[in-house]
Structure formats: C-alpha cells, structure tokens
Amino acid sequence: MGLQIYNTLTRRKEPLETIEPGLVRMYVCGPTVYAKAHVGHAMSSVVFDVLRRYLEYRGYRVLHVMNYTDVEDKIIQRAREMGVTPEALATRHRLEYEQHMQDLNLLIPTIRPQASLEMPTIIEMIEKLVAGGFAYEVDGDVYFRVARDEDYGRLSGRKLEEMRAGARLQVDERKEDPADFALWKAAKPGEPSWPSPWGAGRPGWHIECSAMNLRHLGEQIDIHGGGNDLIFPHHENEIAQSESVTGKTFARYWVHNGMAQLGTEKMSKSLGNLVTVEDMLKDHEADAFRLLVLNSGYRNPLTFSEEVLAQSEQALERLRGAFKPGIGNGGDVDLTEQAAAARRGFEAAMDDDFNTAGALSQLFELVRAINQARDRGASNASLKVGQEALRELAGILGLRLDVRRFDDKRAAPLLDLLVQVRSELRQARQWELADRIRDRLAEQGITLEDGQDGTHWVIG
Q1: Nearest Cα to 313, choosing from 207, 404, 374?
Q2: Which of 26, 196, 240, 271 is most solvent-facing, going by the fewest CB within 10 Å?
C-alpha cells in the first residue's frame, strides 16, 4: 500500500507522492524567539524529526527547512519590557533553541532561515501581490485582499462570511474588508524597520513564511508542517499569499501535530503553566521525553506530567535492558526471525501515517524476545542479531538508548562494595541474589568481569 500520510487539507490519509521522485521538500514552522522554548515546541520538533528520519530510512532525500520568526510583535513587546533590543532578545533565544536541538537529538534542519535576513524576498513577494491586485497599500501599510482568494478558508474549514462577523476581528477602518490581513506594517518609533516601496516598516508574520518557502524550496513543496494552532490564520494566509503569487498549489500535504497540555489543561502563557525545555531536561532524559511523544501519536494532544514521564522512563529502562549481556554459552538461540518480524511490523505501523505508538510496540516485542533468549542461556553472539535490529529501529525514532554515565570517582566506593557483597553471596551459594546484582548493574551500563584475580567492574 505504501506510505500513507494524513492531509489536513483533505481531511483524510493519502499516499505520499512527491513532486520530484525521491525528494521531499518539507517546511516546518519553527519557534517565534521571544521567550524560552517550552515542551510544546519540543513536541513539534520531535514529531517532524521522526517524520524526516523515517522518510530518509525509506530512501527519500529530505530538504528540511525550519524557520526562526525573529521579527514579530511579541518580540518587540518583550524586548521593550526587558530593556534590550529586539535583535538581542531574538538572538539569545534562537541560540538557546539551537542547543535544545542537540540536547533532544534532533536532526539539524537542512536550512534554518531567519525572517530578519529575508527582507529582499519578502518585499519582492509583496510587490507581486500588489501588482496583481491581490494587495493594496494604505498609509504605508499593505494588506492582502482576502476576497480575491475564492478558496480562502479551505484549510481551516472556515467561511469568509463567518470570519467577517467574528467579534475577534481587529477593526481597522482603513481596510477594504475586515478580514484583510497585513503584509507590511509601517514603521513606528522605537521599532525595527527596513526600507520598502511603501516606506520604512516591517513584514507581517504570515508573509515571512511564504517568502522563506519560496526562496529556499521553490514555488511548490511536498509537506508543510507545524502545530494545529497554526492552521488558522497562519497557514490559511500562507496558502492565500503563495498561491496568489505563483498560481500553483502551494503544498501537497499539510501535516499538523496536536498541542501539549499540562495534565488535562492546555499549556498557555496566559495560564502560566508552561514547562520550558530547559527545566524539563534538568530532571529528565531526552529519550524519556521522546518516548512520551512517540506514545502519544503526533496528531493527538500530548499529556505532559511527572507521572506520564515516569512511565516513559520505565519504558526507556525496558529498552535499555535488552542490551544486557548474555548469561550463558548457548549457541542455539536464533533471533533472526524475531528481528525480521519486528522490522515488518515497525514499517507497517510507520507507513500508516507515522503510527509511532504502533512502531514502539514492535520494539517492545523484540525486547521481550531478546530477554527470553537471554533467560534460556543465550550468549552475547546469539543476542547480537536482535540487539542490533533493536538499536537500528530505535534510531529511526531518534532514540539514542545511551546508558546513563556515572561519575567514576563518586561511584567507585559503592561499586566496590556491591562487588564485595556479590562475591560473598556467591560464596554462600545465593546465586539468585548475586545474579540480580550483576543484572541490575548491567542495566546501568556496568559490566562485572570475573577472573582468576577476582571480580572487576567496567563502565561502558
């Protein structure tokens, strides 16, 4: 059946058919860098990281663009409150996010454009919209004529008449239509601005992404991604702008992830219940957070809580436990078929709209087979086939499964004591307790090596 992907635009799963065979052009809306990134940002980044990893596993070359919105009202307001320049504030949080991408084991996007560096393309695009009658200038501001787009609202399912009647529409008597939105904003004192044919000013939020798409990926792209809170008005407006300029379908597939929520309550700055990526990573491993996202399903809300994270950490230890060494010399345990079955199930799940929860279940089935083989006396060589398959499939999901490292100097006295206790248990023929110490240490990446001169521990 091939890879199926849910398209927000058509509201159904569709086979992935790219514009150019073997190449996926993917644009993902990145963070607006006016404050520390929170777990909602991390969730979206992990979702599209996994999507990219699986596409590459399937043989596609992925041209992945993720932008930084560094010109926006929130940045200007926050910078004013903090007494710093908007540029300095945006740069600080952009660099923080660059570090978060490494910490979360995210593949670095192919291109990471910044809106502030894209002004020539933005201005050129607005000029084309004005020349084509899709936009108009008023007192240095430029607005898009929503009425010129007959299909406006098809992504969100909203009708233009309802939008006009909505109480939330900002009233501006200068607009031809209340639903028209800003492409260019005239400069105000103390705000960053750039020269343009309409006077000094800065771009509206929506045109920035359309321009960056056009410059770095061309007139048409395969996948446009982001959180489902961006469907309206941001992505709706991107479609209107881009297709009015090119006359072509903008994106083939619109892919949106669900929102993060703290317990049962949506995370929101207004509610003050955001958890920053920085704070989350102080107490939890990146792999544990990634498992939380993978288990949720990308289109579903992400329930973030200490309890759910604890469950993810337990699941992480189960995966790591599969890499414990063999306990015998048995050479008759063959995990080839179990590894192949796990791969088939993994691919079937991921081909079905990136069903990561289903893919994870195949990993845990393989873990169970490995552990059963070990219990039957499998040697390290016998376990290797299953363990290598597990590590590869986990890697496609972005899981590192690194063994947590100890501070050797601080851990050494405790480890020496455990080795001594285990030796005494073996002398007392309490094999089960002795083996339990060895196995639990192995789960933490510590191997006990028995020799003629006694037992030694090795980390790593």
Answers
A1: 404
A2: 271
Residues 69, 30 contacting (CB under 8 angstroms): yes
**Beta carbons within 8 Å of 423's beta carbon, 6+ residues apart:** 454, 455
CA geometry: angle at 198 spanning 194 and 199, to 5°? 45
Give the list of residues 6+ apart from residue 370 with CB closer than 8 angstroms, or none. Answer: 322, 335, 338, 383, 386, 387, 390
Whether residue 229 contacts residue 266, with contact meaning beta carbons closer than 8 Å, is answered with no
Q: Strand 141-144 vs strand 61-66: parallel, antiparallel, or unpaired?
A: unpaired
Q: For 426-456, how does the pLDDT look when each residue is reduced to its tens digit (9 = 90+)? A: 888 888 888 888 888 877 768 887 776 678 7
**Distance of alpha carbon 225 from its chain centroid, rounded?**
10
Query: Which residues have C-beta within 8 Å of that of residue 429, sequence separation ≥ 6?
Result: none
Peptide bond into 233 cis (omega under 30): yes
H or E element that contains 252? strand 251-257
Task: Provide the Cα torsion 364, 339, 349, 38; round to 10°.
Answer: 50
Residue with tokens 């086939």: 385
Q: Which residue has the tokens 């979360």?
A: 104
- For 348-405, write each residue's pLDDT tens digit: 999 999 999 999 999 999 999 999 999 888 888 889 999 999 999 999 999 999 865 4
Residue type, 66: M
Q: CA nearest 87: which of 51, 116, 129, 110?
A: 116
| Residue 100 near residue 56 (C-beta atoms within 8 A) | no
* Helix extents (H) in 66-204: 73-82, 86-103, 119-131, 160-165
Q: What pLDDT does residue 406 have? A: 47
- For 227-285, the pLDDT digits (tens) are 999 999 999 999 999 999 999 999 999 999 999 987 766 666 655 678 999 999 999 99
pTM beyond 0.85: the answer is yes
Eight-class DSSP state of 115:
G
Q: Are 307 and 415 in contact (CB under 8 A)?
A: no
C-alpha Rg value of the chain to the nearest Å:
27
- List the structure tokens of 406: 């100890």
380-396 vs 336-351: helix axis angle to the nearest 10?
10
Q: Is 90 strand, coil or helix?
A: helix
Determine the distance from the C-alpha atom of residue 178 to the mean position of all C-alpha atoms in its chain, rounded to a whole number. 35
- How far CA 60 is from CA of 7, 19, 36, 218, 392, in Å, comes to 19, 12, 33, 18, 17
